[in-house]
Specification:
Chain B: This is Stage III sporulation protein SpoIIIAB. Chain B: Keywords: Coiled coil. Chain A: InterPro entries: P-loop_NTPase, Spore_III_AA, Spore_III_AA_AAA+_ATPase. Chain A: Keywords: ATP-binding, Nucleotide-binding. The complex is a heterodimer of chains A (338) and B (172). Chain A has 338 residues and is α/β, with parallel strands linked by helices. Chain A has two domains: 118 residues, Beta-Lactamase, CATH 3.30.450; 189 residues, 3-Layer(aba) Sandwich (Rossmann fold). Helices cover 24% and strands 27% of the residues of chain A. Chain A has nine helices and 17 strands. In chain A, the strands form three sheets. Chain A has an eight-stranded mixed β-sheet with strand order 12-11-13-14-10-15-16-17, with helices on both faces. In chain A, strands 4-3-2-1-7-6-5 form a seven-stranded antiparallel β-sheet. Chain A has a two-stranded antiparallel ribbon with strand order 8-9. In chain A, strand 13, helix 7 and strand 14 form a beta-alpha-beta unit. Chain B has one domain. Chain B is 84% helix and 0% strand. Chain B is built from six helices and no strands. The radius of gyration of chain B is 21 Å and the shape is elongated. Chain B starts with a helix and ends with a helix. The chains are: A alpha/beta (338), B mainly alpha (172).
């Protein structure tokens, strides 16, 4: 279904790794580098990678195996260096993120952190002694949204429908919604009609969608796209609605009550919303209070459950606003490996 | 005639050596003050502007007076250009290298080195504490430096000339 896809090699990710880890990561076999999803670094414990929905331990020479005993064990010093490099030598600029347990680094890669949590009056203040890192590689895949967009078109209104993209973590929600934003903004419609691109507003709370560096997107998000970087979703949506007059709002991972209020506000302003949510399927989503409310109100016109990768046998499913299955494609990979 | 020229040269050299020593004594408090000022600017950048360190240090390089400006400018530039290198490494190396170009002493360098080990690796509150500590210690050094300047500045000047005179006398 999609033919043109670009998998970008995660070379620049490795610039965040201190010397020894850098060499190990760069020494990984090429086919693994291409499908690399996570690098998991735990102090004094085996170095692990997740690739193509499989996992393995890595030894000092960059060879992978299932045997943790042979794996490389990052030292305390390396973990300190890694934190220094990940935070651009400035941990204090990541205080808010540290409270939430992850930071987003240049290139849109999200790094989950574990360690000792410091509390202040019962609230999480920060993570000290960070000893666990999960570097999740953000990949830009031009064309990842091509298989989804045809189901979202509203021909009458000449725009897209309110849509919720659903999939478990690591299945490419962010990749797909980013590409949808790019296509809608560029005017890359799946039909031959002469529609122009729409004004797209991205609220990028975790800097994953556009991977902004100093406010300028580094991923392709389209020429008519405005990005509110690092901004809480609900507030960001309201700000966009008030000031940037978007046709389509794009938000990643909604789930809090205030997000629902902002989505309703967007609706009233006639703005289309593309959002994503964690979940195994529509039923799963229904069990979450805030999302169930939105579903019951019939706010979304399309629910798209993203397919799994090759071999998982999960099809792409599209439901309409009332939850009826519209499409179930037999193909089992929306993001093909290159 | 030749002897006379030699004597003049010796006298001149002695005077210059004396003047250089007294210049160093006079420069030290000024440079420490410059350093304190720079750290205060850095504090503002960290606490209020939340500027990442590489950028903040480069800004310091432009905003402050030499020789302190060069130190921070160099560290900032290296952090921005070289990948995979930690702040602590760059800081240590550059401070070590750069100190020869200043009139400041080992004690000040040690304070700056210590600061380098804590910079950028903790939250704002903690950063401020370390910066304040460094500033306080530098202020103390400034006092000693001023004291030494008062006591020895004139002495070095006359000592230089007098040593020159002594050698000339011994030559004759």
């Amino acid at each position: 279904m999609d033919n043109l896809e670009e998998a970008i090699m995660p070379d620049h990710v490795f610039s965040f790794l201190p010397g020894s880890l850098h060499r190990i990561a760069a020494g990984l076999p090429r086919e693994i580098l291409e499908t690399l999803q996570e690098i998991r670094i735990r102090e004094s414990r085996p170095l692990e990678i997740v690739y193509d929905h499989d996992h393995a331990f890595v030894d000092a020479g960059g060879k992978i195996s299932d045997n943790p005993a042979a794996a490389y064990r990052p030292s305390h010093q390396e973990c300190l260096q890694l934190l220094d490099l990940l935070t651009d030598h400035s941990l204090y600029t990541f205080e808010e993120e540290l409270k939430r347990g992850f930071i987003t680094v240049r290139g849109g890669h999200r790094v989950g952190l574990c360690g000792r949590v410091v509390l202040d009056k019962g609230e999480i203040k920060q993570i000290k002694d960070v000893t666990g890192f999960n570097i999740r590689l953000a990949r830009e895949m031009i064309g990842a949204g091509r298989s989804v967009l045809p189901y979202l078109i509203d021909f009458e209104a000449q725009t897209v429908r309110h849509t919720l993209l659903i999939s478990p973590p690591l299945w490419g929600k962010t990749t797909v919604i980013r590409d949808l934003a790019r296509m809608i903004s560029t005017g890359e419609w799946p039909h031959q009609l002469a529609w122009k691109g729409k004004k797209v507003g991205i609220i990028d709370e975790r800097s994953e969608l556009a991977a902004c560096v100093k406010g300028v997107p580094t991923f392709h998000v389209g020429p008519r796209t405005d990005v509110m970087d690092h901004c809480p979703k609900a507030e960001g949506m309201m700000m966009m609605i008030r000031s940037m007059s978007p046709d389509v709002l794009v938000v990643d991972e909604i789930g809090r009550p205030e997000d629902a209020a902002a989505i309703r506000e967007a609706l009233r302003a006639g703005i289309k919303v593309l959002a994503t949510a964690h979940g195994a399927g529509l039923e799963d989503i229904r069990s979450r209070p805030m999302l169930r409310e939105l579903i019951e109100e019939g706010i979304f016109e399309r629910y798209v459950v993203l397919p799994g990768r090759k071999g998982t046998g999960r099809p792409l499913q599209v439901f309409d606003g009332s939850g009826f299955l519209q499409v179930k494609t037999p193909f089992d990979s929306h993001v093909k490996k290159v | 005639m030749l002897k006379l020229m030699g004597a003049a040269l010796v006298l001149f050299a002695g005077a210059m050596a004396g003047f250089y020593q007294s210049w160093r004594l006079a420069s030290r408090p000024r440079q420490i003050r410059g350093l304190i000022h720079a750290l205060q600017v850095l504090e503002t950048e960290i606490v209020y502007a939340l500027t990442p360190l590489p950028e903040a240090l480069r800004k310091l390089g432009r905003k402050t007076a030499a020789p302190v400006s060069g130190l921070f400018g160099q560290i900032g530039d290296r952090l921005e250009q070289e990948q995979g290198i930690t702040l602590q490494e760059v800081w240590e190396f550059t401070a070590l290298d750069y100190w020869k170009q200043t009139a400041m002493k080992e004690t000040e360098r040690e304070i700056v080195r210590q600061l380098g080990r804590t910079l950028g690796i903790s939250d704002r509150e903690d950063q401020v504490k370390h910066l304040h500590l460094a500033i306080r210690e530098l202020q103390r050094e400034e006092m000693t430096a001023i004291d030494e300047q008062k006591r020895y500045e004139k002495m070095w000047k006359s000592l230089g000339i007098l040593a020159g005179v002594l050698i000339v006398i011994m030559m004759y």
